[in-house]
Amino acid sequence: MSKSTTQPRHAVVTAGAANIGLAIAHVFADAGWKVSICDVDQTALDAACAGNPAVSGYRVDVADAAAVEAFSADCGPVDVLINNAGVAGPIGDVETNSPEDWARCFAVNVQGAFHMVRAVVPGMKGAGSGAIINISTASAVTGLPGRTAYVASKWALEGMTRNLARELGPAGIRVNGIRPGFMDTERMRMLMGRAAEARGASVAEVEAEALGFISLRTKIQPSEIGEMALFLASDAARHVTGQIIGVDGNCEWEG
Ligand SMILES: NC(=O)c1ccc[n+]([C@@H]2O[C@H](COP(=O)([O-])OP(=O)(O)OC[C@H]3O[C@@H](n4cnc5c(N)ncnc54)[C@H](O)[C@@H]3O)[C@@H](O)[C@H]2O)c1
């Protein structure tokens, strides 16, 4: 990870135009990095880049291998890749899930990360350094009934993380994962709302129950995922690879 101190280091964040990805982009930009974000939402990209000269936006669906290759060619050599793009996948009993929804979940959450890795690794190998950080979920530890495609896709992403740590370590490239927990985000508010409706309970009741399974009894701010990513990208983590780190207040269980 050593590089000229006169040139800012370059981080790429997928799905970086909103929520956790945007928070990661801000943490890196605030720390003096050049940041390239990609996203499918052009309006969100424009808003994310406005007034932020360190952040460049690209409209890319990570499930599209050709679009990812073009993105990688446009944004140049990358020091740190953060594979943050991840969709919720089908919600409901497994027998009601459609094959198309499963395929889309894996196309974004697993193949999307693979497309990005494939695009940036040659440059990292050439530089003899680099870091890849994959955003998983605390649900990969607890399991989550009704979300089998999502959990299975994140296990695949974690498997990719551990395997690539071995494969790319000799080239000086580190590969780690982060498991966000009960996030203070739009997606979590949406999921809490759905759970409350399904159970005929209030959102406050469902949320209090969820917090009861978290040792620190707290939700996580998106910037905390950015701070962990920045640590994993830093020289302080130069001997950290093949690790999946929870930033979740210790999520003991999920209902
Ligand atoms: N939010 C949570 O509570 C939570 C908890 C645990 C893990 N995670 C993980 O963190 C990551 C980010 O979650 P989030 O809640 O911030 O996401 P989100 O659903 O808010 O989406 C963030 C961005 O992803 C973009 N996006 C969606 N599909 C894309 C694609 N195919 N290519 C490029 N961009 C795409 C969207 O346009 C959006 O701007 C995901 O991998 C998710 O699984 C989230």
List keywords for this structure.
255 residues; seven-stranded parallel sheet; 2 domains; alpha/beta; binds nicotinamide-adenine-dinucleotide; Rossmann fold; globular
| Mean pLDDT over all positions | 96
DSSP strand (E) fraction? 5-15%
Number of helices: 9
| Number of spatially distinct domains | 2
Order of helices and strands: EHEHEHEHEHHEHHHE
Shape, principal axes of CA atoms: globular
CATH class of the largest domain: Alpha Beta
Bin the helical content. Answer: 40-55%
**What's the CATH H-level homologous superfamily of the largest domain?**
NAD(P)-binding Rossmann-like Domain
What small molecules accompany the polymer chains?
Answer: nicotinamide-adenine-dinucleotide
Quaternary assembly: single chain
